[in-house]
Amino acid sequence: ASDAWIRHGIAPVVARKRVMSVCAFLMLCGIPAFRVESDAMALALISVVLMAYAGWASNILSLVADLFQSSDAAQITGLGGTTASIGGMLFTLATGWLIEHYSYGSVFVVSSVMILCAVAVVLWAIPSRPLISSPE
Questions:
Q1: At what angle do helices 39-67 and 70-101 cross, to 10 degrees?
Q2: 129 confidence band (pLDDT: 50, 70, 90)
Q3: Distances from the Cα of 31 to the Cα of 26, 48, 65, 116, angstroms
Q4: 106 burial type by CB count under 10 A (0-12 exposed, 13-18 middle, 19+ buried)
Q5: Where are the alpha helices (DSSP H) in the chain?
Q6: Contacts with 120 (C-beta within 8 Å, 6 or more apart), sequence order
């Protein structure tokens, strides 16, 4: 979807931020997934969440290449991957604690709220034009 907008003249960063916003809101389908009566409906909702996550992930990785020069993009992507891995480890621990003390529902809600926080940061903190690389 972002590529289609880019072909129609929308700036790459703006197009990716738009797609990421839509994907973030689609990931909210995870909230009702644990409450539905039908297994098929739960799977459908979780499938929407995973599809939206794939859209989010591909655009966040492309966003780095749109914002930074290629000489800097690899380091920034590596830093992002490292922080994501650390966050994943911490959230795995938090998931166990939430399930033990509350319920699976709390994990679905927290996960969905986290993506809203992430899209807010992306929309607020990332400029809509490429950044100039610092001289080496």
A1: 150
A2: confident
A3: 10, 12, 32, 12
A4: middle
A5: 2-7, 12-26, 30-33, 39-67, 70-101, 104-125
A6: none
